[in-house]
Specification:
Blueprint lengths: L1 H4 L5 E7 L4 E2 L27 E7 L1 E6 L5 E6 L5 E7 L11 E7 L2 E7 L5 E6 L21 E7 L6 E8 L22 E6 L5 E6 L4 E6 L5 E5 L4 E6 L5 E6 L4 E6 L4 E7 L7 E6 L5 E6 L4 E6 L4 E7 L10 E6 L5 E6 L4 E6 L4 H4 L17 E6 L4 E6 L4 E6 L35 E8 L3 H14 L20 E8 L5 H5 L20 H9 L2 E2 L2 E2 L5 H10 L4 H11 L27 H11 L1 H9 L22 H13 L8 H4 L2 E2 L15 E2 L7 H9 L27
Parallel strand pairs: 1-31, 1-32
Antiparallel strand pairs: 2-33, 3-30, 4-5, 5-6, 6-7, 8-9, 9-10, 10-11, 12-13, 13-14, 14-15, 16-17, 17-18, 18-19, 20-21, 21-22, 22-23, 24-25, 25-26, 26-27, 28-29, 29-30, 34-35
């Protein structure tokens, strides 16, 4: 009995969450979220600046052409990947924001660079998807991945032509990338690309090979150099002599002598797991800026001394962190732009106090008062999860957001009873990971006063629109009577699919697939405990949903990489198994709270524990697989608890009865004293005698069980919101 396991003074709440996240309701549009009103699952209401253009599936990269007339955007989501070229400058305002060309691609990581020659672009390529309804057209080059796609484009029309590919396979001696379960395969996975000022050299960060590729653009000859763990950002100094590559887990930047292809120095730009990502070279000063995504900090490297000169904070005390992922410097060297993915904003810093930056420039509106170098001028509101922001010489500012204004209703969601409910035809439905559409914004570069005027809007949107004070005497308070909350998570189903037949809620019975007759246990719980019908998931799939559920935040690493894992494009499943996927530092949890202890345990990670056991002499202390004799990872204590979790949560269907395939883990966290907490298993319906045991645990009479007609999880759909997590 549950009461026998816990002190009698402990009060317990069981909430059945049909869609975990934030409940939202306001005005006449009760429960409506998405592009129609800009309200996100978190309750944030977005009102971006600039003329917006809808883009492809989850764009996480982009670049302006050298003349600034066109913006290249890279769709890198679960569905089809493509390049969409958007017009930025035109004589007619009506033409600004038009997509002039869409180029179907096999797979993209988000890396892109424009050559100084003004007509060549380089794009990082990953493997094509094996799923039929999102493969690149036959004959498309680079379907095997690990390539740099070369394009030439017309300066006036923006239309591009393919110019072949440059292979960048993993160099000899590359260790297997981290995967779960561990394997022996290797892969490069090119991420960011940089071009030298003379256009003769490319520098490419190979994210899964712990290396960088140095490419001769004329001969396509490739040299390799070992760098930090999970290299992401790439930059080349103004004199063209040195390249810089970030290492996500180690918080470092590797300084590379491009002539000798050797690392001359390693700069610590942030703590372990600070995830330094995008970099920007100052065109007027010896500085390179580095976005530390999981630390909410931008580090400024002095390229004369190759040391960190200062850091700039974009952090906030509220929210899950601002997550700066991309930085750029305006062509005149006056401003630094930071795309802060976690706060849906672009931060603007002053870099110069010279007279040319104080007065209005071409295309700028209003006056510019006295400014101070490295001062945060303010923030601009943009779309959901910005991944790029830059300015051209024509006075325009552009931004890209991966999620646009959010995902709205998807009544034609996957149906497990349909023959099309498979990876090959899932896009025939409104499958949530595939219908996430990004957006770009184009606007005149605002003056400093205009930026400061827009900043309060960014501050307000951090707070949910339906935020309200708790009622007097609420038991949900510090030191209150509630000590434990049982959080029952049901994934891959929406409120309407399961509880749309409950007349008390704002559901649609026409969308109900697993109603009372299929899920009697859940309906019994909903009758006894709260029914939450306007609670939405701040995620698009199980992987990031698990992080939201357990940690309240998701790192940029997970956000950008799980779609290509789901798409079958070869991204490994290292989520939750290795420290690289730990939640960001920007998430604030009470000191010594259970959540903080769990977060610290995740950051230490079973992978890092293994690394210490495998090779304690490794000076970097990272978690990569090592060569030579090693302990069996599946026997290590840090792995055994992880395997225990995974076998319960995702049991292998091959050797277990059908009734046990759908078991879901509610709690399996071990205390530090190694005393296991009791497991609570829930299934609809449960085979006897398990149903009797569950009834005793919950002290709830359960209906008789019968055959379960539900098929495999078919993905989310709802007429209002987001998926169940």
């Amino acid at each position: 009995m549950l009461s026998a396991r816990w002190p009698k003074a402990v009060a317990t709440i069981v909430a059945v969450l049909a869609l975990s996240g934030v409940a939202w309701a306001a005005g006449s549009q009760l429960g409506v979220i998405g592009p129609s009103n800009g309200i996100q699952p978190t309750g944030r209401k977005l009102d971006p600046v600039g003329k917006m253009t809808q883009l492809g599936n989850f764009p996480t990269g982009g670049a302006l052409t050298k003349n600034g007339r066109f913006l290249w955007t890279l769709s890198t989501g679960r569905a089809r990947n493509d390049i969409r070229i958007v017009r930025v400058n035109a004589r007619s305002r009506r033409k600004v924001g038009q997509v002039v060309q869409t180029i179907q691609m096999p797979g993209l990581s988000g890396g892109i660079a424009m050559s100084p020659d003004g007509h060549t672009a380089y794009v990082s390529g990953v493997p094509d998807s094996p799923h039929k309804d999102q493969q690149a057209p036959p004959g498309t080059p680079g379907t095997g991945g690990d390539v740099i796609h070369v394009f030439t484009y017309d300066r006036k029309t923006g239309i591009a032509q393919r110019g072949g590919v440059i292979p960048v396979p993993p160099p000899t001696g590359t260790l297997p990338y981290q995967d779960f379960p561990p394997g022996s395969a290797t892969k490069s996975w090119p991420r960011d690309v940089a071009v030298s000022p003379d256009g003769k050299t490319l520098l490419v960060a190979l994210n899964l090979a712990d290396s960088a590729a140095i490419i001769n653009t004329a001969t396509h000859a490739v040299r390799y150099v070992s760098v930090g763990h999970y290299p992401y950002g790439a930059a080349i100094t103004r004199n063209g002599r040195y390249g810089l590559v970030t290492g996500e887990t180690e918080g470092t930047v590797s300084v590379i002598n491009l002539a000798t292809a050797s690392v001359t120095k390693t700069i610590q730009v942030g703590p372990h797991l600070s995830h330094p990502e995008g970099m920007a070279v100052d065109p007027k000063a010896p500085l390179v800026f580095v976005a530390n995504a999981s630390q909410d900090v931008i580090a400024a490297i002095n390229t004369d001394t190759m040391t960190v000169q200062r850091t700039l904070s974009v952090g906030r005390p509220q929210g899950q962190g601002t997550t700066p992922t991309y930085v750029s410097v305006t062509p005149d060297g006056c401003d630094l732009l930071s795309a802060d993915s976690g706060e849906d904003a672009v931060a603007v810093f002053a870099l110069s106090d010279t007279a040319r930056c104080d007065r209005p420039r071409h295309g700028r509106q209003g006056s510019r008062p006295a400014r101070h170098p490295f001062e945060l001028i303010g923030r601009l509101p943009v779309g959901s999860y910005p991944t790029m922001a830059a300015a051209n010489r024509r006075g325009k500012l552009v931004w890209i957001s991966a999620r646009g204004l959010g995902v709205g209703p998807n009544p034609n969601g996957p149906n497990p009873e349909s023959p099309n409910d498979s990876d090959d035809f899932i896009n025939s439905f409104q499958y949530l990971p595939s219908i996430v559409r990004g957006s770009s914004g184009i606007l005149r570069f605002p003056s400093d006063p205009a930026i400061r005027k827009l900043t309060p809007q960014v501050d307000r949107q951090i707070v949910p629109t339906n935020s309200q004070a708790p009622p007097a005497g609420t038991p949900i308070r510090a030191g209150g009577p509630i000590k434990h909350v049982f959080y029952v998570v049901r994934e891959n189903r929406t409120y309407d699919q399961v509880l749309g037949d409950d007349p008390r809620g704002d559901g649609d019975p026409n969308l109900t697939l697993f109603g009372q007759h299929v899920t009697p246990n859940l309906h019994a719980l909903a009758q006894r405990f709260p029914l939450l019908d306007h609670v939405y998931a701040d995620s698009e799939a199980s992987i990031d949903g698990h992080y939201w559920t357990a940690a309240g935040a998701v790192s940029d690493y997970v956000v950008k990489n799980w779609p290509q894992n789901y798409a079958g494009r070869g991204r490994p499943y290292d989520f939750g198994a290795y420290e690289v996927s730990a939640p960001p530092e920007g998430l604030h949890l009470p000191a010594r709270s259970p959540g903080q202890r769990l977060l610290l345990q995740l950051r230490r990670g079973p992978g890092r524990t293994l690394a210490a056991a495998r090779q304690r002499s490794d000076p970097r202390g990272d978690d990569r697989e090592r060569a030579g004799p090693q302990p069996d990872p599946l026997r290590h204590p840090a792995r055994r608890w992880l395997l225990r979790l995974r076998r319960l949560d995702f049991p292998d269907a091959g050797d277990r009865p059908e009734a046990w395939r759908r078991l879901r883990l509610i709690a399996s966290v071990r205390r530090q004293a190694h005393r296991p907490l009791p497991l609570r298993l829930l299934q609809d319906p449960l085979p006897n005698p398990a149903a009797d045991q569950l009834g005793a645990v919950l002290q709830l009479p359960l209906p008789a069980t019968g055959p379960h007609p539900g098929g495999p999880a078919g993905g989310p759909h709802s007429r209002r919101g987001r998926r169940l997590q």
